[in-house]
Amino acid sequence: MAIAVKQRLLSLDFFRGLTVAAMILVNNPGDWNYVYAPLEHSKWNGCTPTDLIFPFFLFIVGVSIAYALGSRKDDPTQHGQMIRQALRRGATIVVLGWLLHLIPRFDFSHWRFPGVLPRIGVVFSICAILFIKTSRRTQLWTGIALLLGYWILMTLVPVPGIGAPNLEPETNLGAWLDRLVFTPAHLWAGSKTWDPEGLLSTLPAIGTGIFGMLVGSWLRRKDREDAVKVSWLFVYGFIMVILALIWDPFFPINKSLWTSSFVLYTGGLATMALSASYWLIDVQQHQRYLVPFVAFGRNAITAFVLSGLIPKILGYIPAGNTNAREWLYQTVFANNMMPYHASLGSAILLVLVIWVPIGIMYRKHIIIKV
């Protein structure tokens, strides 16, 4: 999330920008029938490179909170204002997500309440309040409680109207709760019976944000040398990945359910990736060729919103017997490339198109805050 920080890490901007660029890439293939396997989500259990993108972003949200609010947290007189700002920003992100779904038809009968931006907004708000009002120890135990509590709920609590607890797509406890609260018309159109950003799985998603906050708090400490901080972060991340793999047979790594093992697995990998970026970019000063990703990182939410708006706008512009988006894809890519290459090429083009305004904003030092 692009939020102003007093102690800004170039590596954090780079990591955030790389993540949001990858998010745009995998969300916008030219043809969903032709997508390379690494650019697809896992069918259910398991984890592909694409499955790492969203948890990495929520992890970065947590790290950003630690850097943005760390110095102000020490002054209790600012807590009220900080909490109000966090709630306002979180609500704005949620509303942006809803508007992005509704535009251009504003069909409220199929308004999807959950979603990527709503989850980001909720996780940001809750994690920010936790960071402001609690100690690192309390944050750690809160994260552990969320992961263990979610495991117990999903594997031990019977599902009303279905029976025994299970982890199947349509019959697990989270899917039942989503249908109960939102009704099928307001869930993910890909299933209408469950939502990958549903209510219950928001609990472990908050755990992902807390994971990032703890890493951010450790990284910004002044009483440890950089080499020591990075070494311990690598060890910490590696241990989390091992714990996730141990947990996997009992509570499978699953992005759609956002299982507790998925939180540990992706959080561990994100920790190692960020610590490597920090060492290479901020400590060793290897900073060439970073501008495109740093630009995305400075205005990540803006870039994501553009990635939703541009294809929709093109889809409603007539072009012969079709629309501008389809005409462009067929004319430039499908008619000149193999299907998988064409689909990927179209996604890459959208990333480059979005980089133009994002790059201009970066050079003019414009950051759109939400």
UniProtKB/TrEMBL annotation:
Keywords: Acyltransferase, Membrane, Transferase, Transmembrane, Transmembrane helix. The keyword Membrane applies. Pfam families: HGSNAT_cat. It comes from Chitinophaga polysaccharea. This is Putative acyltransferase. The keyword Acyltransferase applies. The chain crosses the membrane at residues 9-26, 52-70, 86-104, 116-132, 144-163, 198-219, 231-250, 262-281, 293-317, 337-362. Residues 8-233 form the Heparan-alpha-glucosaminide N-acetyltransferase catalytic domain. One of its GO terms (molecular function) is acyltransferase activity.
